[in-house]
Amino acid sequence: MSLIKWVNLKSIVDSRGELTIIEAQKDVSFDIKRIYYLTNLSPNMSRGYHAHRDLQQLAVCLVGNCRVLLDDGFEKCWVELGSDKAIRIEPMIWHEMHDFSDDCVFLVMASDKYDESDYIRDYTKFMEEVNNG
Amino acid sequence: MSLIKWVNLKSIVDSRGELTIIEAQKDVSFDIKRIYYLTNLSPNMSRGYHAHRDLQQLAVCLVGNCRVLLDDGFEKCWVELGSDKAIRIEPMIWHEMHDFSDDCVFLVMASDKYDESDYIRDYTKFMEEVNNG
């Protein structure tokens, strides 16, 4: 089973520009309780480096691109993330975002509000939970 | 009562870039059932030109800026929308988006899924509903 769960996005393009729509319970399997986005990114600085115990997320670059590492403790996959498709980041997936393009706008939709106790920020701890889970 | 309902946004800025978080039932008063975003916008082309009967929305430029016209049938207000604050677009507000900057990324969070019957796309009809409502 691949770690990479692509979600195709619906865009409507005309002379005015491009409109992209993402619907809860359809394109994402949850009502969206929180969104967050990254802008003014430094290309040489990476982000992420954590996993969630329960949170479900959908991530996409609205503009530009980056590389995402997904790791379930058994397998690692690199994803070239752009604006044409989103990826689901499921619970217990260690994820890192690297190599942001200068213009990158990275958006995440999340299934729940912020809860620090849902984060695993230490890779050794993550592997312990993978092996004991 | 002003038509302009600003919502301050929480951003965390460090050497990696800028992270902005918007939470349902907190920064917006609803669970987010749909998001949509505009990219690759033509600066000379305007968008919107409708009102919603019930839908609640929160709009922000993640990057760049534009001008938004809000009109409740009694009063018209122009908003310079950038990335520092969002605006609520409430039901029965005719809205138009103009003068997108070249780099503009315009994001909207909506309280419900798409429903064409919720749209009023004709200004005369809008004014009729305002006056009969």
How would you describe this structure to a colleague?
The structure is a homodimer of 133-residue chains. Chain A starts with a strand and ends with a helix. Chain A is built from 1 helix and 12 strands. Helix content of chain A is 8%, strand content 49%. The first copy, chain A, has a single domain (5-11, 20-132), classed as Sandwich (Jelly Rolls), CATH 2.60.120. The longest helix of chain A is centred in the last third of the chain and has 10 residues, at 123-132. With 133 residues, chain A is mostly beta strands. The mean pLDDT of chain A is 95. The A-B interface holds A 13, 15-26, 31-42, 45-47, 62-63, 83, 100, 103, 105, 107, 109, 113-114 and B 13, 15-26, 31-42, 45-47, 62-63, 83, 100, 103, 105, 107, 109, 113-114. Strand 4 (34-39) of chain A pairs antiparallel with strand 3 (17-23) of chain B.
Strand order of the largest sheet of chain A: 1-9-6-11-4
Number of beta strands of chain A:
12
The CATH homologous superfamily of chain A is named: Jelly Rolls
Distance between the termini of chain A: 18 Å
Write the layout of secondary structure elements.
2 copies of one chain form a homodimer.
Chain A: E1 5-8, E2 10-14, E3 17-23, E4 34-39, E5 47-52, E6 57-63, E7 66-71, E8 76-81, E9 85-89, E10 94-98, E11 105-110, E12 119-120, H1 123-132
Antiparallel strand pairs in A: 1-9, 2-3, 4-11, 5-10, 5-12, 6-9, 6-11, 7-8, 7-10
Key attributes of the depicted protein:
homodimer, 133 residues, mainly beta, Jelly Rolls, five-stranded antiparallel beta sheet
